[in-house]
Amino acid sequence: MVADLSQLVKAYDVRGVVPDQWDEPMAELFGAAFVQVTDADAIVVGHDMRPSSPGLARAFARGATARGADVTLIGLCSTDQLYYASGALDLPGAMFTASHNPARYNGIKMCRAGAAPVGQDTGLSEIRTLVEQWSEHGAPATTATTPGTVTERETLSDYAAHLLGLVELSGIRPLKVVVDAGNGMGGHTVPTVFAGLPLDLVPLYFELDGTFPNHEANPLDPKNIVDLQARVLAEGADLGLAFDGDADRCFVVDERGAGVSPSAITALVAARELARNGGKGTVIHNLITSWSVPEVVRENGGTPVRTRVGHSFIKAEMAEHGAIFGGEHSAHYYFRDFWNADTGMLAALHVLAALGGQEGPLSGLVDQYDRYASSGEINSTVADQAERLAAIRTAYGSRDDVTLDGLDGLTATGDDWWFNLRASNTEPLLRLNVEARDEKTMTAVRDEVLAVVRA
């Protein structure tokens, strides 16, 4: 297969339809290229529950061993479990998953030793170039004097122990929690991580099934948490948790069945991590998180740092600033003590600790962190992304009461509102997020911007 890698290699991972866009022979090339670019003599490889994942992971391992690298296969795992293995074993890693995408997709998330990200600017473009050359002309003969070895290793129990060592949970009150794993890897990790905690666990869709028979494993889409919300109410549960397909993101539902904003969770965890570090530290947040995040960080003695959207950017900022924590609007949560990598499970443990450490309901606990009216992300299909962005820049750039910045797309900030408009890298879409001090202002700004975008 000579692939169109422009559609396959994204900003910080590989993702496409199997076998239409890529297959096992191409995965083998990626394995060889990964070893060559990282200059690794040993790597760790894991995979999710998609039907194509085990074969792709084995093919990647063949490519890696052909280049002389020893491969540790950890089998079924969540993406943050792969990051744990990369950090604990100090090895470059590759995770086979397409996260929340439909069943026909698969992909690779790659990292260097210590879970350091591999993105377009940190090795992924070089890997793409090699795979393109080799898929067209054939891979050169290996220069390894002897091929690498393949061993298997269990990491789930050590992963769970590491996370539980980072949050004080011994004194929490009993809680009833509904967990929707969406037939993804949360069904694999949650039973082990939550074992021994004073939780009445109500499992929902814990069966590992990469065809996603119940709903897409994408809790960011409101329709995919409807079952969780209903079950929380039916059970009289204290909260609900929803994991995406590879279980690196976690979404929270309160006792009323209402979704809790990832920005509120970011603020809550930031306050706890700052307290854990003596009221000092830097917290990274992307530019779409709520105003409440930097406010809470400052109120708790920390220093907020605003950055672009995307895990490779967040992780780079975490490393540069020595940050203790980072959060995104998409429910990715990053921890210094987890090799700056993202783990929704650790964020979930913080929520359980915070809720279980006091007597009130979750809705009351998060009220202090949810201070503004937000639109959520609104997508608009446009014929020309650049032209529509330019139209918005023209419409707001001449106003004395508005400040513009171009850190990631276009952000406009007024006295009591802000919005960000960004182009999708993969679809003809513009993504709009609006926040304001009250619902009326947010609605007015949202409608005004959309009128220009969709004109």
From TrEMBL:
It comes from the Bacteria. It is an enzyme of class 5 (isomerase). Its cofactor is Mg(2+). Residues 7-135, 158-257, 267-372 form the Alpha-D-phosphohexomutase alpha/beta/alpha domain. PANTHER family: PHOSPHOMANNOMUTASE. Its EC number is 5.4.2.8. It comes from Streptomyces clavifer. Keywords: Isomerase, Magnesium, Metal-binding, Phosphoprotein. Residues 377-451 form the Alpha-D-phosphohexomutase C-terminal domain. One of its GO terms (molecular function) is phosphomannomutase activity. This is Phosphomannomutase. Belongs to the phosphohexose mutase family. The keyword Magnesium applies.
